[in-house]
Amino acid sequence: MVRRLKPHVQVYPNLRAETTALARHIATVARKCVRERGVFHFVLSGGRTPKALYRLLARRYRETFPWHATQVFFGDERCVTPADPESNYAMARAALLSHVPIPLTQIHRLPGEVRPLSKAAASYASLIGPLPSRRGSASVRFDLVLLGLGSDGHLASLFPGASALRERRRTVVAVPHAGQPPYVPRLTLTVPALCSAREVCFLVSGEEKAAAVAASLGAPHAEDRRLPANLIHGVQATVWFLDRGAAVSLPRQSWTS
Asked: How high is the pLDDT of residue 1?
């Protein structure tokens, strides 16, 4: 059994403040990774919440972030074309990737348009490589995984109670039926793939997410598969960046800032 570290919960007045803090944190982690290992493996989140973060990284950190040594991956994707407005890649490209000097060969999108879905999942799994062993530095595949949280408690395209949460061997799976709009099939990294990150950062905003945040951070059972976020943890750290709305149902003593 791998010892799980207690998550750090950081609460800020609003989305702008938490986004500013997270952008600064990501840049610091990226520089440290490149300084120590020559590369930064960064997994992006989809959805609406991280758009402001991506725009800030593109604007404020365009010249000071080690884009030349960054490898970008995606936590999940809707099974649409890469130009579709529902595509996570399209959002990240418009807000961030097309504005920073990162080589195109270092952007690894999930091929949501490929059929059958099993072929698309296998293709990305081959790119990522096999699951790492849980021994020392070999336990790390990614340096930082960015995740959001839905009001229903889902993250990436791992929905509460879904069979994908039980996957322990594959790194990427197809999700034929999404639990929330848009109701299109998805591709998603699995629990063990996400947990192969050196650090996992959650970015959650809004009072409509408060119940899901409180349930995830206050879950009584460490392997409660009804709560996907309770299964996800970084090898070295798990940090929750929240605004006051998202944190309103948490006891203040659980905050670390």
From this structure: 38
